[in-house]
Automatic annotation (TrEMBL):
GO cellular-component term (any): plasma membrane
Full protein name: Regulator of SigK
Membrane-spanning parts: 106-129
Subcellular location: Cell membrane; Membrane
InterPro entries: Anti-sigma-K/W_factor, Anti_sigma_zinc_sf, RskA_C, Znf_put
Membrane topology: Single-pass membrane protein
Length: 237
């Protein structure tokens, strides 16, 4: 993906901007950069969706004992891929010198949101790596080269997708559930794929009566009724 002018200066500013912690005198300059930089625009939209979804997160719960080892294994796998792609030996990353001067007022909400993200992530990880054996159901996809699976456990379901393109600007992917003879019901699962096209989304709650799980694109924040055709469809029963 192309980058805009002065990208190196703003490469690590997306999260600070979404949290509202970017100093006022930097905001206008960063927004000008966003208009010309597709890479920072995509990262900002991805982080904004995560921040908006936090109030909808389920209450914190204790993750299973195996969760930590599974997460660390995934971190190691990602590190090996990055090292292999760059051709450089693996080593601990050097801390990046920040170019922004933050007041304590800006740091406090950022830390609070980061803590909330960790709680939400632990809950989502528990659904994905829970002790119950998941039932795996393939999605039918309308997007070429995109594949996805629905992993169902007693606690809910998790969508795992690959080669999923970024949604249109101003939109996100949204998960819907449908029961026999009823219209699709919205869930709180809103997501965008990572830069490599991979994505995960958790749907909590009882899935026993669900017949179909759907994924489509909706405006940021979601909708109460579908406004576009599904791109992923899984028949649960």
């Amino acid at each position: 993906m192309n980058v805009g002018p002065d990208h190196e200066r703003w490469a690590d500013a997306a999260g600070v901007y979404v949290l509202g912690a970017l100093p006022t005198d930097e905001c206008a300059a960063y927004e000008d950069h966003l208009a010309a930089c597709p890479t920072c625009r995509a990262e900002t939209e991805e982080l904004r969706v995560a921040a908006q979804a936090l109030p909808l997160s389920a209450p914190a719960m204790r993750p299973p004992p195996a969760l930590k080892s599974r997460i660390m294994a995934e971190v190691e796998r990602e590190a090996e891929l990055l090292a292999s792609a760059s051709g450089a030996p693996r080593r601990a990353p050097e801390p990046k010198r920040r170019r922004f001067n933050f007041s304590l007022r800006g740091v406090i909400p950022a830390v609070g949101l980061a803590c909330a993200a960790l709680v939400a992530g632990a809950f989502g990880g528990a659904a994905l790596f829970g002790s119950s054996s998941p039932q795996t159901i393939p999605f039918e996809s309308t997007i070429s080269n995109t594949s996805a699976e629905l992993e169902m456990t007693d606690d809910g379901a998790t969508i795992v997708a690959n080669n999923l393109p970024l949604p249109p600007e101003g939109k996100v992917y949204m998960v819907w559930i449908q029961k026999p003879g009823q219209a699709p019901e919205p869930t709180s699962a809103l997501f965008t794929p990572r830069r490599d096209g991979s994505a995960t989304a958790s749907v909590t709650g009882d899935m026993d009566a669900v017949e179909t799980v759907l994924v489509n694109t909706e405006p940021i924040g979601g909708s109460t009724t579908p406004t576009s055709q599904p791109v992923l469809t899984a028949s649960v029963s």
